[in-house]
# Entry
Amino acid sequence: MNETELREAIAAHGRLLFGRGYAVGSAGNISVRLPDGYLMTPTNACLGRLDPARISKLDPGWRHVSGDAPSKEVFMHRAVLETRPEAGAVVHLHSTHATAIACLAAPGEPAPIPPLTPYFVMRIGRVLPVVRYYRPGDAAMAPAIAAAAQGARAMLLANHGPVVSGRTLDEAVYAAEELEEAAKLALLLQGRQPRSLTPAEVEDLLSTFG
Ligand code: 13P
# Structure
């Protein structure tokens, strides 16, 4: 996809995520790697009403070059994209169920959601680290985000929400949606004894689809 198509795709995904209630108000942000820098949703923008032409563009050193001012979460997106060279996009949401788990889970915990469904394992992988609470936009979160991103495609920020990467924008969005559904299932099943996928079943999925 060229830059114009990517701008349209960010706006289209933003509209769908907002429409499903996965982002509310002006919460949530999306970034995409370009050959000559990055695209990032503007700060205080509603994901449901993004203007593709006003999406922020940053240079390879993450300096703002055009469009509206970028999301305050630029440090979060930068830490993931610089740690994971294979990642082409990052989605951060305040989606309700993933955020609920992020309020319950202990920082440092590697797997706050059990492997209940194949698509959760296929899209998110084996681990989902929980990063301790930082104020939104706090640059101090970068080392903790980078450390978590080292071995994981996605993470939960305590009391805040999910951060999900993917090789492409589609992949990052689909993984963020799958994470939200898995969090919802985990909460629905809390206090009961659902069957989790076995380690052998998880390995089979990752070796086939990972
Ligand atoms: P921005 O409006 O700066 O993108 O921040 C929204 C958000 O989700 C904070 O975590």
Notes: The chain has seven helices and eight strands. Strands lie at 29-34, 37-40, 56-58, 64-66, 89-92, 130-131, 154-157, 161-166. Helices lie at 3-19, 74-83, 96-104, 118-124, 142-150, 169-188, 199-209. The first strand starts at residue 29 and ends at 34.
